[in-house]
Amino acid sequence: MSYRLLLCQRAVELYLRDLPLSRHGRLRLYLNLHDQLRVNGDHYRNDPELRLCPGSDCFRYDFTFRDAGTGRMYRLLVIVNDAAAAYGILRVVYVEDLAG
Question: Is 55 left (phi over 0), alpha (psi -120 to 50) or beta?
Answer without folding.
Answer: left
